[in-house]
Every structure is written in structure tokens, then in C-alpha cells.
Specification:
Rossmann fold; 29% helix; 2 domains
Length: 424
Amino acid sequence: MKAVIMAGGKGTRIASMRSDIPKPMIPVEGKPVLQYEIENLVENGITDIILVVGHLGDAIKDYFKNGSALGADIEYYTETEPLGTAGALYCLKDKLQEPFFLLNGDSVMSVDFKRMAAFHKERGGLATILTHPNSHPYDSALIVTGDGGCVKKWLSKEDERTAYKNRVNAGIHILTPEIVSGMDRGGKWDLDRDILRPLSGTGKLYAYDSPEYIKDMGTPERYEKVCGDVRSGLVRRKNLSCRQRAVFLDRDGTLNVYKGFITRPEQIELIDGTAEAIRAINDSGYLAIVVTNQPVIARGDCTFEELEEINNTLSTRLGEAGAYIDDLYFCPHHPDKGFEGERPEYKIECSCRKPKPGMLLEAAEKYNIDLKESYMVGDGENDMRAGAAAGCRCAYVGGKELKCEGISCERYDSLLDFVRRCIE
């Protein structure tokens, strides 16, 4: 596949650091941010690259030349006037006759592009965007998806939202030639507003969700964070081609205050220190994955839609504090019968309800997780038994005495106590 990188931005928010070079050329630990993207593409076999340059573009051309030093074949398109975030594609349409990657040129990243390409091919949409959680969803556009990752809604920062799943567009896209041929004129085009957002709800736009490292350095504060992550090796470790480590988290009683069966969003109340603990997990490179039994579905206490709103409320509360979970798995089953309003189809013995390890094993398969290097954290015996069955280390954060014969687990005062002693 070919890749087009939009590398013509001025970087007005970070101009206080370097105004003499284009934003993609700002050095991060000894090399330009754009070089990280090109190297990441090349290691995935994507060597045919078009760089769209504009502001101070000669600095990019002089540095990368034809790309041979990096194992790439680079050509350039120079915008003589600003064409927006996608206008150059119209000018390049004769060169874009197959599906291609489109990247913003101002992010440090380490992505397994082969996984994303396979996802796009399997779904067969007109476009695929890479989404991920971030630490500031309240000032980002949010992507709402349905089954199979089909994008249902695209919520801009200005749109009203209450409870939401923290998933934002990461600036990595796969577009088909049909997208470009549909651009019926030259001039300025906004990729999100004019091309992608109108595809929401049509069944033609998909979101490939990934926890991999993708961060822009658009502000001095984010720049310093990216530099530190490069130095520590975190950027590379988050690539899904590498074995991942995870902290699996029970929900009720571990993240939020236990209130029996939770059936309404307003019942979600974070335990003190939860957001701080999740932020530390996020910064450490461990994946934060919730695995929770939710028999409220089988019992008929709430619907899947209501449970989704409850889980989105949890995500929103964390996002307001700069923390996020990478994924959430829930088991809707319960084997006991006899409840008024119960749903018989979910009254079964399953492989996902803790103490069985099904949810952990499913996540491990999806994210290439090394379970022996991962933790299961919870407030009950079922959590510990599920973690042990999956081969994880087990950390108990409940207030009651725990008796789990044959299981090795350590006890901590809270999730925050566990993180401070084991993760940070």
C-alpha cells in the first residue's frame, strides 16, 4: 500500500519552541517527528510514500530527499496555497488508484499497520480510521461505533454529549480511490468535516480501535511527554507486534463504589484515588482493561443499551480526570433462574463469567497480551480465581477477608495502593 503524509502544517501551538522549521521537523530525541512515522511505515513494508509539504517545506525535502536512506521511495507534492487537511488528495488522484494510508505528519507513533490493513480489507468500507482513548476526550471529537466497528456518529467538540465512550480519531486513515474520485473539485477540503464525518451512519466508515502509541506534540507539555516516552522505550513497547502487559480490572468495588447491582448511570461513583491509579497505569505502558460480570442483563434489570450508558459514564468520569481504559469486557450471563423479568437466553453456564477466565483470554488474543506478566485486580474471590486460571498475578483490593484456597494473591488497601507498589 501507498502512504500519503500531510506534512504541511505550521504548528502554531508549538511555534514558541521552534518557529524556524515546519512542525513535522521538530526533533524528538535526536530525529524529526516525521522520521518516526516514516520508519514505522517502512518496518511494515509500506515504502511508497508521498509527502505533502507547504510551510517551510524545503527543510523536509532537504532532509529526507528521495527517502532511500530510510528504505523508502519518497516523492513530494508542494501546496502553493493551503488546501486544508485533504485538498491535496484531489491533486494526487491519478496517483491514488488503490487503497492507501493517510497520516497526519506531526505524531510520534508505533503502529502495527498490517493489523489495520487486514481490518480494513475484512470490513470492505470506503474508509477506515484508527481510534484510541486519550487523556483529554472532553476537547476532542468522539467516534461512536456499532457492531464490527461501523461508525454510527461523529461528535465534534461543540456537540452536546453527556456519557460517552472515550474514543477519538488518532489521525491515521485508510482511504479507497472512491473517496478521492468523489472529490468533485479542487481547493480546500477538510478531511473530517467534508469527507469522513458525512460517512457516519452510512455503513461505509469503520473504526479500527487500537491502544498503540500515537501522540502529537502540539503543545510544549505534550512534547516533553513524548520525548520522555521515546527515551523510556514506551513508544515501541506499545506496538501490538510486541507482547503487551495488562492490568485487568474488576469494575464494581474496584473502580467505583460498590452499590449492589448497578442499573442506572447516576449510581457510578469513582472510589477515591481511582482516576490517579488509572492515569499511572496509562503512563506505565500497561493496558487498563476492565473485565466485569454483569448479570443485570440476564436478570432483566437493565438492557444492553442501559448497561452501555453505565459503562460510558465510568469512561466519562475517568476522562474528566485525564485517565482512560483501553477496553472493557462484560459477561451478561447468570446461571441461576427464577428472577422476575429474567432473560432465559442469558441464563446459561458460559466461559466468560468470572471465576472462569474467558474475558481475560479474549483480551489476550486481541491485544497480544502476555498473561504471566499481567495482573488481575479485584475485590472478590471470583476475580482472583479468574486471574489465576488465566495465569495472571492476582491483587486483592477488597476490604473483607479473602479465602481462596490454592490461589496466590497479594492484598492491597486500594487500587491506588496496588499501583504505587507494583506499577509505578
